[in-house]
Amino acid sequence: MQPKANIFQGYTEFHNEHYYKWEKAQSQKYFEYRKKWVENADKLIIEKYPLHLDIGISNVCNLECTFCARTIKVQKDDWRKVMHMDINLFKKIIDEAVELGTYSINMNLLCEPLIHPKLLEMIKYAKEKGIIDVHFHSHGGLLNEEKANLLLDSGLDKLFFSIDSPYKDKYNKIRVLSDFDNVIANLKRFKELRDARGQLNPMIRVSMIQFPDIEEQELIDAKKFFLQFADAVGFQQYVDPHREIGKDRTYPSEYKSKFVCQQPFTRLSIIEDGRVSPCCNDYDQELIIGDVSKQSLQEIWESNELAQFRDVMKKGDFYKIHACANCEMAVNADEDKQTPIQKLEPTI
């Protein structure tokens, strides 16, 4: 049987009316991208270009969230040298991506993009060059009215607020150094400013992690509460940042898993210094396959290193790669474990 990768594994999303208006207004090329996003994973199709890039434009964040791999590594004094991606490196990546045909970029990996001094210039550059879908995740605490208006002028397609509980006390406990009331006020004001302009863009999504101890009522409350202020609410499977889940797990001889990770077939992840991985959860840079500051994006996408990684996945041997064997998403999929909310109308 042909192996398949589930592009929406561990993810569920719910929408409101504004979302559907926004979606209806998107270009034919956007829908071409979304079709490939699903089908290329399902059929393990490899284009001549990555459909999507996760670009870590910084490795800086002003929070110390308890569940974040960055927090854990900072506390162990094991985090990378603090730096922002150079604007010229970013432009090189965008230029090459557009020439290849890449549709989409997310502008963060374990960072707060609003801290980068060149964020607005980067967004505008990507849009002017022709990236169809430009978006980023933010904790929302730094989004004052001035920054909100500048983002609304930038051409940004989507803005994702990471708010991991609708309950103030729980949020403030896990999102250390953040403040629930401030974040919700910023989210609400951003939507008010966008709607007052009559803009459909950027689409606003609240993203929430489905922690292992989460109860159904919290998910119901989150959906109801956040859809007042956002166009979509997404629930993402928790991934243990300590990578303990597969540590002591053993596999029978010649074991073949049904799990295939979609990432090496659809996207690349680039950290602030230009190093490239096939996985957006490669916190320890165990899977580095190239460096876009020294190589072309096309060279990395077509590299033997990435081809070998894909081959391991297609063979059902994910567990033979240390970083993958300890990935909660991989292990749960291999064991056919379901997340608390089942898939409904998901998008990236």
Shape: globular
Distance between the termini: 27 Å
CATH class term: Alpha Beta
Q: How would you write the strand order of the largest sheet?
A: 1-7-6-5-4-3-2-8-9-10
N-to-C order of helices and strands? EHHEHHEHEHEHHEHEHEEEHHHH
Give the averaged pLDDT, no decimals.
94
- CATH architectural group: Alpha-Beta Barrel
**What is the total domain count?**
1
The helix fraction, in percent, is 25-40%
Strand content: 5-15%
Number of strands: 10
Structural class: alpha/beta
User: What kind of oligomer do you see?
Assistant: single chain
Query: Can you identify the CATH superfamily?
Result: Aldolase class I
Largest sheet, if any?
A: 10 strands, mixed
**Named CATH topology:** TIM Barrel
What Rg is obtained from the alpha carbons, in whole angstroms? 19 Å
Q: Helical region count?
A: 14
Low-confidence stretches: 343-348
Please explain how this structure is put together.
The protein has one domain: Alpha-Beta Barrel (TIM Barrel). The two termini are 27 Å apart. The protein has helices at 17-24, 28-43, 69-75, 87-100, 119-129, 145-154, 168-174, 180-197, 216-226, 263-266, 297-301, 304-314, 322-325, 328-334, and strands at 11-15, 52-55, 104-106, 133-138, 158-162, 203-210, 232-237, 267-270, 275-277, 290-291. Helix 4 runs parallel beside helix 5 and helix 6 packs across helix 8. The protein is 38% helix and 13% strand. A 10-stranded mixed beta sheet has the order 1-7-6-5-4-3-2-8-9-10, with helices on both faces. The chain is globular, with a radius of gyration of 19 Å. It is α/β, with parallel strands linked by helices and 348 residues long.
